[in-house]
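ok so i was messing around last nite and threw this chain in just to see what happens. nothing serious, just curious
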Amino acid sequence: MGRVALSLLLAVLVSPVAAGAAWPLDVAQWVEIPIPRASRVDREVWESAANWSPLEWRVQGRAGQTIAEPRNGSDTALPQQPEFMRGLARFGRIDAFIQVKDGWLVGFERGGSDSALYWFNHDGGRHERIGAQHIGGFFARADGIHAIEGSNAPGAHDGAVIRIARVQPGGRWQTNLLTRLPNTPQAVSMAADGTALITLSDALVAIDPQGQLHGVLADAPWPKFYPNSSTLSADEQRLYIGMRQYVAEFDRATRRLRFLVPSRDALHRLTREEERGIRGYVKVQVVRRSLALPRS
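result:
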């Protein structure tokens, strides 16, 4: 084996993604990584290391456990995705889907602000375009099918919860606004009492069974981690959120937020040069802000 080939093989064998094959998928076996609280500089280093991590976790409930699996950027298949959906690449990337009485509702994204919501019959042979919403997730309640929607375009901070229904039997699917959200929604999980727990790009909120919006966790420290999925524990005590580098665990009773990894070996670590550059940049920004403050 040549030197170049051997180097490539070793890189694969020791890479975080390859090493993950031996990591536990049950997050109950994962370890906590404390959030730095010493200084803004330490926090920025922590956030940047996670932001540049090659690992991204998708969570789901399975047989009473919370399972986290690495999400491959080239893999467009979602958990429990019907087989016919693998042939829908011409519509875009599937971001979310839900089964309804006469088929499936599917949310697609082509990139940027080019998104669409479709209905497909059970085998995918027929379809109907419903609208241009970017769907982050669907959820079913007693009053029908709902979805979280909002643009994923850079700088976008809008979101909403919408209801999707056929106004008349056999008629076209239509959407109507249930409530506005304070930021872009990324994932949603339903509690048994009908409460929808919605992960925003920077917070957690809840929609109660009466459709009222409530704040749950403000200023969540994950805007650079890009949440992609969420699931409740079997006892609904904890909400788990899949994202880049970490799985976040939020205790609904104590409001405690923890960040988990399968092993400390899974942590992405900055080089000395990268960390030095970040620390220097943050210190310069702090000085600039202090000089810009009005003098008393």
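not much to say yet. The first strand starts at residue 31 and ends at 32.
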